[in-house]
Amino acid sequence: MLLEAVYHRPRLNWSYAYDHETIHLRLRAKKGDLTEVFAWAGDKYAWDATKELIPMTLFTSDAMFDYWECSSVPPYRRLKYGFLLQKGHERIWMTESEFVTERPANPNRLFEFPYINRGDVFTPPAWVKDAVFYQIFPERFANGDPGRNPADVQPWGGTPTPENFFGGDLQGVIDHLDHLSELGITGIYFTPIFTATTNHKYDTEDYMSVDPHFGDVETLKKLVAACHERGIRVLLDAVFNHSGRTFAPFVDVLEKGEASPFKDWFHVREFPLQVVDNIPTYDAFAFEPLMPKLNTENSAVKEYLLKVAEYWITEVGIDGWRLDVANEVDLEFWRDFRKVVKRANPDAYILGEIWHESSPWLEGDKFDAVMNYPFTDAVLDFFIYGTLDAEGFANAIGKQLSRYPLQASEVAFNLLDSHDTPRLLTLAEGDKNKQKLAALFQFTFMGTPCIYYGDEIGMDGEGDPGCRKCMEWNPENQDLDLFSYYRKLIEIRSSHPALRTGTFTFLEAGPQGSKLAYERRLGDNIILVLVNTEETAQTFSLDVEDRNWENLFTGDTVRAERSKLSIKLPAYGYAVLKALL
């Protein structure tokens, strides 16, 4: 038994309250080392009457480690616990301070979950588990009100540049909500819509007004109401890490220097404000002079931004915020932000833009979720680039599942491309078979899938500005087969709870392999997903229950015999199978 690899600590993703009654415990061990693991748990004040051994299951693995997990519903909402590790006939007890061969005589030196305080339980909005999001870059989606066009507007569908405008607006979104409803979308994430000088609007000039090129507050209210009538939630983008150069307080500092009452709203290293050797004398996003970093530790800045966060929820009725450059803002600001937002709407979804491992922001006091770019990387590496084999992909996904509490994984924002990346079809070098398989995993995995506008009709594009081209509305230029495929994916996901909240288990993911099979299970609702990423046909032989399985794409039924299910899939083939009772 390699005890050096065994790890557990209280809180975070290792010991946490899943809900107001249930505690989840996890333990890490060397991959393939332990054969059984038990949690030895009970109430610290009634140990003898409540202690029990709880079997733990191997819930995921990565390249180096296994992760074991169990649930406990303690009678008094608190838990003392240790672990019993087994490898064949070898047995080791793990306490908070040591490993011993004999069961500890008393619980004093075991781990402790002191109490499930309801206010501490991380509870993301339940609706997010069922949502399918669609990301819209407003300036490029649809021009619904030409009267709001910028003076230098370009003809729709022209070549995008970092500076040009095509006249997309909020009325254009309203005009095309039928497209989203037909697809099955239940949530929209808008990149910024507030007054700014650029086409992307990440350089906010006025946080309290809709950009006049897009509409006004009444237009936004009309859009939100129309979305809500269709069962579509609305997420706006909050740029609180930095403002724009034309933001009034920053303009005042530019003009008055150290005499400005707003000089502490920003991180100024040296006056006057200027750019020296391509680096501003003030902190800015990515050294971009147009985007000065806000000092969110300043009480006046914090008060202003928190009023912004509350205003658009209470005044317009939006359903949450996506937070730009979220990991560069101080944590105390986000704690206060969460309190303000949840007070305004307890069901609001708070989504942070973080591209890496994000545990510190997913402890229940800051965000509900982050944009799940580690998921994106794993999917692209396996399905698109082919730089991971099936085993490597399973390890990457396993690592990601091990990092966060279950409730965070259930609402993770799973995207495959965005306004910040090349489009999925371009990454796939135009291979729509690869795009389809990547999307299939996205829509049958745990978390909330998001489609970048136009992916569903075959739009391509390199990185910014190519990924921000105008939406194609001419049906003759749309891939309607691809649209039907995405619509079917959403229909299958929406019709089967196991694909949204069920357990996730890999059934086949071998070294140097191009075959992938996994199970989603929620009670009696069992779904198998089989994927062949090879250019030739391959046969799957899986250990499953003897029953009939319905292919949710074709309606065909296949029978498992003698606990074996055998299916041959063509090149780039796939099957989503539902167990029939």
From TrEMBL:
GO terms for molecular function: hydrolase activity, hydrolyzing O-glycosyl compounds. InterPro entries: GH, GH13_cat_dom, Glyco_hydro_13_lg-like_dom, Glyco_hydro_b, Ig-like_fold, Malt_amylase-like_C, O16G_dom_2. The keyword Hydrolase applies. It comes from the Bacteria. Keywords: Glycosidase, Hydrolase. One of its GO terms (biological process) is carbohydrate metabolic process. It holds the Pfam family Alpha-amylase_N. Residues 135-493 form the Glycosyl hydrolase family 13 catalytic domain. Belongs to the glycosyl hydrolase 13 family. This is Cyclomaltodextrinase. It comes from Paenibacillus graminis. The lineage of its organism: Bacteria, Bacillati, Bacillota, Bacilli, Bacillales.
